């Protein structure tokens, strides 16, 4: 038995999994990687909760169902990234570039997207309830069926945006540019449009005469 003991211990040993690392950045909750190059990374279902990836490059990355809840993502490049069904609840995404990204069914509940570029992004059925999108640039974005209840879109560029069937109850559209937007079938109870550009907007309320 004295000679069998080391063999038994070896068979019982379980290797400890380490976090995936890209450009010296550990892909794990709470990671701190400023200006990391994660361009084109394949990270479906990655857990980056409370991570700080500010100014990093994630363009073209596969982030399907990834978790970025309460993460710091200021000025991150998400161009053409796939964030379908990803969770970014209460994340700080100020000034980030999400142009052309797939954000369908993603959740940005109470997220800070002030000044973000969402031009041409697909936000179909996304959850943006309570999100701040002040001065966000969203021309030609697709938000069919999206939930924007109580979102703040003050001064946002919404030219040609598709908001058909979206939940826009309590949304603040003041000073926003909705020229050519489509709000057909959207829920508009308690939404405010003071000072907004509603030229050629389908489904928008009639402009108030001055």
Radius of gyration, Cα only, in angstroms?
A: 21 Å
Strand order of the largest sheet: 1-2
Ranges where pLDDT stays below 50 over 5 or more residues in a row are 7-17
Give the strand tally.
Answer: 2
The outline comes out as: elongated
Beta-strand fraction estimate: under 5%
Main sheet record: 2 strands, antiparallel
SSE order: HEE
Number of separate domains:
1
> What CATH architecture would you give?
3 Solenoid
Give a concise summary:
By secondary structure, this protein is largely without helices or strands. 4% of the residues lie in helices and 2% in strands.
List keywords for this structure.
about 210 residues, Pectate Lyase C-like, 1 helix, 2 strands, about 5% helix, about 0% strand
Tell me what the structure shows:
The chain is largely without helices or strands and 210 residues long. The protein has a single domain (44-210), classed as E3 ubiquitin-protein ligase SopA (Pectate Lyase C-like). It is built from one helix and two strands, in the order H-E-E. The longest helix is centred in the first third of the chain and has 8 residues, at 5-12.
Topology (SSEs and partners):
Layout: H1 5-12, E1 21-22, E2 25-26
Antiparallel strand pairs: 1-2
């Amino acid at each position: 038995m004295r000679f069998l003991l080391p063999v038994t211990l070896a068979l019982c040993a379980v290797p400890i999994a380490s976090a995936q690392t890209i450009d010296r950045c550990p892909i794990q909750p709470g990671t701190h990687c400023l200006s990391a190059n994660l361009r084109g990374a394949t990270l479906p279902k990655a857990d980056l909760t409370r991570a700080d990836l500010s100014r990093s490059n994630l363009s073209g990355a596969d982030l399907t169902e990834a978790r970025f809840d309460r993460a710091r993502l200021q000025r991150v490049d998400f161009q053409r990234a796939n964030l379908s069904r990803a969770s970014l609840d209460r994340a700080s995404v100020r000034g980030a570039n999400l142009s052309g990204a797939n954000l369908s069914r993603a959740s940005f509940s109470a997220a800070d997207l002030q000044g973000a570029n969402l031009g041409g992004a697909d936000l179909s059925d996304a959850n943006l309830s309570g999100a701040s999108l002040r001065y966000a640039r969203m021309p030609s974005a697709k938000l069919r069926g999206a939930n924007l209840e109580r979102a703040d879109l003050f001064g946002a560029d919404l030219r040609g945006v598709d908001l058909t069937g979206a939940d826009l109850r309590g949304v603040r559209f003041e000073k926003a540019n909705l020229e050519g937007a489509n709000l057909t079938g959207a829920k508009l109870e308690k939404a405010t449009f003071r000072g907004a550009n509603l030229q050629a907007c389908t489904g928008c309320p009639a402009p108030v005469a001055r």
